[in-house]
What does this fold into?
Amino acid sequence: MSLLIIITFYFYMRLVIQRVSKASVKTPDGYSRSINKGIMVLVGITHSDTREDAEWLAAKIAAMRIFDDEEGVMNLSIMDIDGEVLIVSQFTLHARVKKGNRPSYMDAAPAELAIPLYKHFISCVEAKIGKPVPTGVFGANMDVELVNNGPVTILIDTENKL
It folds into this structure.
């Protein structure tokens, strides 16, 4: 009698959301985008992510109440304050560091899978907040600068969306 065990690993679309006073992204070839008050979102996409994941995360960050109201309570969303959003792809959010000292990025989706989903995520955020969203350059080496206001940094993924 033999026993067949199948182990399935499921990884999740992952975001790092930072409330910022200002943020910018620049590439060595002169590409540059910046925002003032709002949020900077780092996006990590993996093999099993779907358009529905991107849509859920876009709705979540658009409605997330992480800005202070007049009493200093985090009660307002990016839409409530008419803030800006800067989105930057970051495959290193899916780094595996369990073995050795060199991270493995095998959980990050390859460009042919990630780019369409990244673009879909951007368009979903734009639709939710009602304005264009500046972005980094997918796959490029970039300098990212930000002034984290608060500090407020939130990690979110699609693991617990249901």
Observations:
- The two ends are 38 Å apart (CA to CA).
- The first strand starts at residue 14 and ends at 26.
